[in-house]
């Protein structure tokens, strides 16, 4: 069954071709993951074209660059403050033990940068997911329930 993002069709052939990049325990799960990936890419492509980050007929390399630019512009996340990092450290103290046998954790100052990077990356992932859901909510999608699959 073909998928549509607004008026753009994603064919069964495209989905089957994409499945090779989505190993899964079953063919149905691989198809679902491939369809989701293509649907998200098309949502982002349409928005990148609309916002002028890439021409409509861009090749894959230019399209990827345009999508990255779109995400950089639209998904802005703050850096985690020292207080936020400290709270994460305190709530997850067992993750910072020097070794499995050692009871003492690493000092906060030793791991603060890693915590800040982790929290920032997590925030970016959540921001991108939220942005994609927002795009999907404003698009006409048929043949796939994106919100249920994220």
The helix-and-strand class reads mainly alpha
CATH-assigned homologous superfamily: Porin chaperone SurA, peptide-binding domain
CATH architecture descriptor text = Orthogonal Bundle
What number of structural domains do the residues give? 1
Strand ordering within the main sheet: 2-1-3
Uncertain runs are none
Q: Radius of gyration in whole Å, from Cα? A: 20 Å
CATH domain fold name: Triger factor/SurA peptide-binding fold
Strand coverage percent: 5-15%
- Share in helix: 55-70%
How many separate helices?
Answer: 6
What is the strand tally?
A: 3
The succession of helices and strands, N to C, reads EEHHHHHEH
**Global geometry:** elongated
Distance between the amino and carboxyl termini: 20 Å
What does this structure look like?
The protein is mainly alpha-helical and 150 residues long. 61% of the residues lie in helices and 5% in strands. It is built from 6 helices and 3 strands. A 3-stranded antiparallel beta sheet has the order 2-1-3. α2 packs across α3 and α4 packs across α5 (108-138). It starts with a strand and ends with a helix.
